[in-house]
Amino acid sequence: MIDHALPRPAAVRRRGLLAASALLVAAAVAAAPAEAGVSTPKVVSPRGLVVQESAVGAGGGRVAVLMGGLAATVRGSAGSVQARIGPASRLGHPQRLGTGGTGLRVAVGADGTAVAAWITHARGGPAVLQVAVARAGHGFGRAQAISRAGSLALGGVGVTPSGRAAVTWRRGVSGTPVLLAVAAPGGAFGAPQPLGTSRQYAPALAVGPDGTIVVAWLDTPPAPQPPPAPAPATRTARVLAVTLVPGASTATPAAELGTLAFWFSGPEAAAGPGGTAVTWRQTGTGKLLSSPSAPGAFGTPVALPPAPYAADQGDHLALALPGDGTQVALWREVRTRSAEDPTPTFAVVRASVRPAGGTFAAPVRLSAAGRLAGPPQAIALTGRTVAAWAESGGAAARVRLAVLASGGGWSKRTAPAAPGIDPATLAVAGTPGAAALTWIAHAGSGSRETARLMLAVYHP
């Protein structure tokens, strides 16, 4: 396997020397225990692929990266969805799973089973939802088309510890069913089951450590119609969720977690050693979260500390759920030039921790002063939580990390430089002992522009 992170030599003898050195380094990585800290980022996208979208999953000692973009051909370029899977130190060879796709999702279960999903758009034809499964110890199999419609909104994917794969999506553009399809370990996906109705946003999915699958979505009221149509009876949106427990084939009836008079995004779902949770933005000033207390039942929502003004917490909440019952929330506080100009002038990452059974503490700032922080990501490992985000402005762009030890405080970690990083593409996935970080890095311009997928690994 060629390591594209190494420079291409100009002379044959240098090529042989570098190849031998690379083999020695690879052998050392495989044989020696990982050192604490963040590894040097390496290119994991194949040569000639201009990466436009990516996703990462980790579990069972394996990391899976999914890449979509334009691949070089003899006639120019063509859309391509490719994947690599294996130990982080030696990912398997790239696999071409299909032609160009959007909405890429990938997840890996504790047994090493992986599932990838994406949407293809055939010229003049319907949108098609494609899924591919990699059994434990194997690469991805042939893609399976599980839904076709004029429009599709792909939500999340997940894999239970036993290897049961799940994917959720919404078909159509308004008043259409939220669907869930599952595949038994080693099997194909069955017919989708409808969970409810949604008119906006894609559904969210998370898989708990006990194998419970949680799906959440936002059901908004119909848009007002011009007269003489009567005005809608209500303008209240509902946050709904279901659970699918291990061994069951049908999800529980939808439970209402909350209502919103104003909405800006759909709910999110998170999972970790401590369970699962659903979060949503309430009235534009904060976030609420609720965790399942029993199959089909969810606890009373808990509020995060309010932001100083309405737009601060953004649409994304990174939530880590450690095994000790704490809940670690991260978000980005952003200020822009004006309502008409969304260019950020201030962007910081803040974090708040809720002890088991308690309330969220006052938030603390994690990102550096004078830098613009990108959307944060968070993952719970054994005994600690890892937060990651990109920083730019004033100096070279970097991926920054902060680590929260169980029962302790935050400690900052020096991360390698990340030139050309697209902060919105940073993604994190973890196994109990390590976290994989990926992002898209851009370089050059015009016909010489490149966009490569980078991978770095954090070891406690």
Mean of all residue-level pLDDT scores: 86
Distance between the termini: 28 Å
Please state the CA-atom Rg, rounded to the nearest Å: 22 Å
**Tally of helical runs:** 1
Overall shape: it is globular
Strand proportion, as a percent range, falls in over 45%
* Oligomeric organization of the protein chains: single chain
Which class of secondary structure composition applies to the elements? mainly beta
Helix proportion: under 10%
Poorly predicted runs:
1-34
Largest sheet features: 5 strands, antiparallel
Number of strands: 36
Keywords:
36 strands, 460 residues, mainly beta, five-stranded antiparallel β-sheet, disordered N terminus, 1 helix, 4% helix, single chain
Task: Describe the protein's topology.
Blueprint: H1 12-31, E1 37-38, E2 42-43, E3 49-59, E4 62-73, E5 76-86, E6 95-98, E7 102-108, E8 114-121, E9 127-134, E10 144-149, E11 152-159, E12 165-171, E13 176-183, E14 193-198, E15 204-207, E16 213-219, E17 237-244, E18 255-260, E19 268-272, E20 275-282, E21 286-290, E22 292-294, E23 297-298, E24 302-303, E25 318-320, E26 327-336, E27 344-354, E28 364-365, E29 372-373, E30 377-381, E31 384-392, E32 398-405, E33 410-413, E34 427-431, E35 434-443, E36 450-459
Antiparallel strand pairs: 1-36, 2-36, 3-4, 4-5, 5-6, 7-8, 8-9, 9-10, 11-12, 12-13, 13-14, 15-16, 16-17, 17-18, 19-20, 20-21, 21-24, 22-23, 25-26, 26-27, 27-28, 29-31, 30-31, 31-32, 32-33, 34-35, 35-36
